[in-house]
Design a protein that fits this description.
637 residues; binds 2-acetamido-2-deoxy-beta-D-glucopyranose; EC 3.2.1.4; three-stranded antiparallel sheet; Endoglucanase; cellulase activity; mainly alpha
Length: 637
């Protein structure tokens, strides 16, 4: 939710801010303020008794979104427009940090939101893995989890040091209100990042440690690893044990050397604090212990979880990348069935549910409006927790009806109940211009390659060219409080997509498959999706084998078994796409040495840090960029 400030500062500057905050629609930019075509409901919402949307399709597409965010050397290509990237993502101690997912439009891996996404994606499977399995999405989910957790394993250097951030969003002392954008001033595809990144600075690993602590990141990584262990154990217990070991060691570090990255004096964490200000760390420690209890059933972790849960009671009224309290009510109730957690969960939910305790704000058409930024993602977080809680109570429990009704209302709002779908590539009327770089400037179609990055930026934000590739499954930010919105990259507060918006959302969708019944849905596949393979610059489309019914139009795979996905078999059998054994597990394609890092002024110059007014090469451009940014800061504060 805070990333908007970054984008604002870094790139668009003053004009977009003004436009976004007023209700003006300018003729020249051709981006009208849109209102959903259907009027608000005048009666209390009644949830449909039969599924109104194909949630199996939404599920499939939501997982597909994470392929657009994938970093590293890909074992296979799912999207014609995404390939190997993070080619020089090596830590100070030689760690391979190439895997995982990028945060949003950019190629950052911020510790806290990354860890939260990983934990939540595992939480989804923990609660609704059976529903996923019934529509053949479980293998995909587990594979995705491993991709994310393997990054965390590598990021955990030793008992005192771990990588809390990969990538440089910007440089510069905040105190002097100066920044020099790096990642945030790169507008091309991740596949070419190392060639064109402004200042020539590659993805750099920043460490949190006992002396410079980030207990919330350690706790969230620990939670993600324990949660991943919980869902992976039945498929590979050695892997699960390895994850538990990391989780316990991170927990120890977080508790023995407590502290928050908001107090770090490292430049990277000062910027992390600016975009993702962590409120406290005690809730992530509770979360870590809670997930260790979920994964091990060892009662010492229950005691630890309760202790830290009490210590973080100020976080009990939110669930997000920052606050875990409300997620803890539901997780702990699921694990213990204790009334204490029941009551806390209900108190939280009553804030949203119709009735005397309702305090939440809503749009006229019924979207819970937690924050102007990411309102659809937030409402998905709430919907997930309600569905998870109702599942734990039993769908027939008296409280469950209210919870499921609310969750269905929120999800269906986002899927098109009022004529507009907030999920890219779903429905008839969905966002055409998500704020996402690689689906616009893809490595196979990047017309402005080689131009100054400020020109590329101007085209990205200012042009009304639609996204060149469909960013299937991405949940966009959300509307204004009156349900109006812009479908436009320059109005990124509506059109931003992030890994965390889709995380609990994916679980809520699986929850609805569980709620309505597995037999109401058919597995959905890539059949008929436009993944970019017909583009003239695309490489040859992978030919999946006949017994793969996930990535193909093939029929006849037995339903509800992992075997319908060939990529799952590749993972489990350690084979390449063509079936040959993977001999070298090393994932980085480049050798373990620094790539062509260059100072501004050489061949990278045309794409180096630049500014609106720059006409010269990057060394000059840097100076004028600073001026621009200072103005932006002054306006914001
Ligand atoms: C916003 O735009 C609508 C439609 O053009 C108009 O009716 C309304 O008065 C405007 N609101 C503000 C606050 O300018
Ligand atoms: C972890 O690694 C760092 C960097 O190499 C080193 O300074 C530190 O002593 C190590 N900690 C432990 C517990 O080995
Ligand atoms: C299970 O996980 C371990 C640890 O990551 C790995 O070494 C092993 O190859 C995995 N086994 C299978 C069958 O995938
Ligand atoms: C940062 O440090 C200050 C001073 O020690 C402390 O009051 C504050 O709680 C810390 N912030 C967090 C989030 O831990
Ligand atoms: C949190 O717990 C402390 C200590 O028990 C208490 O003083 C405080 O009021 C609690 N805060 C909330 C929001 O419950
Ligand atoms: C790929 O295709 C687009 C349009 O079809 C073209 O503009 C572009 O130059 C091509 N090549 C590359 C390497 O992007
Ligand atoms: C570095 O750049 C030089 C000259 O541009 C090129 O010959 C070389 O292959 C590059 N090395 C890498 C690792 O990309
Ligand atoms: C900028 O650099 C390019 C390539 O190095 C060069 O062709 C061009 O003349 C330079 N422009 C200025 C204004 O220095």
């Amino acid at each position: 939710m805070y990333i908007q400030k970054a984008i604002l500062l870094a790139l668009v500057g003053v004009t977009a801010t003004v436009r976004a905050q007023t209700n003006e629609t300018s003729e020249e930019d051709g981006s009208p303020l849109l209102t959903p075509s259907k009027p608000p409901l005048t009666e209390p919402y009644v949830a449909p008794t039969e599924p109104k949307y194909n949630y199996a399709e939404v599920m499939h597409k939501s997982y597909l979104f994470y392929h657009s965010q994938k970093s590293g050397h890909l074992p296979y290509q799912r999207l014609a427009w995404r390939s190997h990237s993070c080619k020089n993502c090596i830590g100070a101690h030689g760690e391979d940090l190439s895997q995982g997912w990028y945060e949003a439009a950019n190629t950052m891996k911020w510790g806290l939101p990354y860890g939260f996404t990983a934990t939540q994606l595992a939480y989804n499977i923990f609660m609704f893995g059976d529903a996923m399995k019934s529509v053949d999405e479980l293998a995909e989910g587990l594979e995705l989890m491993k991709w994310g957790a393997d990054y965390l394993i590598n990021a955990h250097h030793n008992d005192t040091h771990f990588v809390g951030q990969l990538g440089v969003s910007a440089l510069g002392p905040i105190s002097k209100q100066i920044e020099l954008d790096v990642d945030f001033n790169y507008w091309g595809p991740p596949e070419e990042y190392e060639d064109w990144v402004p200042t020539g600075l590659p993805h750099t690993a920043y460490y949190s440690s006992a002396d410079d602590p980030a207990s919330e990141i350690a706790g969230e990584y620990g939670a993600a690893m324990a949660a991943t262990a919980a869902i992976w154990r039945e498929y590979n217990s050695t892997y699960a044990d390895e994850l538990i070991d990391h989780s316990i060691r991170l927990y120890k570090l977080a508790t023995e050397h407590p502290g928050s990255y908001v107090n770090s004096s490292q430049n990277a964490f000062e910027w992390a604090t600016f975009w993702y200000p962590s409120t406290r760390y005690e809730d992530e420690i509770a979360w870590n212990a809670g997930w260790l209890y979920a994964a091990t059933k060892d009662p010492q972790w229950l005691d630890q979880a309760k202790y830290w849960y009490q210590k973080s009671n100020e976080s009990w009224y939110e669930y997000s990348w920052d606050e875990k309290g409300a997620g803890m009510h539901v997780l702990m109730y699921t694990l213990t069935k204790d009334d204490f957690f029941y009551n806390n969960a209900v108190e939280y939910f009553d804030f949203f549910l119709p009735g005397p305790k309702q305090q939440a704000k809503f749009t006229p058409r019924g979207l819970a409006y937690v924050d102007h930024w990411g309102s659809v993602g937030y409402s998905g977080n709430i919907a997930f927790l309600m569905l998870a809680f109702a599942k734990s109570l039993g769908w027939d429990h008296p409280k469950s009806k209210e919870l499921t009704t609310f969750a269905i209302q929120q999800i269906n709002y986002a899927l098109g109940d009022y004529g507009y779908s907030w999920v890219v590539g779903f429905g008839d009327n969905y966002p055409q211009m998500p704020y996402h770089k690689s689906s616009y400037n893809a490595y196979i179609d990047y017309p402005m390659r080689g131009r100054f990055q400020d020109e590329v930026e101007g085209d990205f934000t200012g042009s009304k060219t639609k996204q060149r590739f469909i960013l299937y499954g991405a949940v966009e930010g959300g509307p204004n409080i009156d349900d109006t919105y812009h479908d436009d990259r320059s109005n990124y507060e509506y059109s931003e997509v992030t890994q965390d918006y889709n995380a609990a959302w994916t679980g809520a969708i699986a929850g609805l498959i569980d709620y309505y019944g597995f037999d109401k849905f058919e597995p959905y596949t890539d059949c008929g999706l436009d993944l970019g393979w017909t583009h003239p610059n695309a490489s040859a489309q992978p030919v999946w084998p006949a017994d793969d019914c996930y990535h193909t139009c093939n029929k006849g795979c037995p339903r509800g078994q992992m075997s319908s996905s060939h990529s799952w078999k590749m993972l489990m059998n350690k084979v390449n796409f063509d079936g040959t054994p993977i001999t070298n597990q090393k994932l980085v394609s480049t050798s373990n040495k620094k790539a062509n890092v260059s100072v501004a002024g050489d061949k990278n110059a045309p794409n180096a840090a630049s500014s609106k007014s720059s006409s010269g090469n990057s060394s000059k451009a840097v100076g004028s960029l600073l001026g621009l940014v200072m103005i932006s800061f002054a306006l914001l504060f």
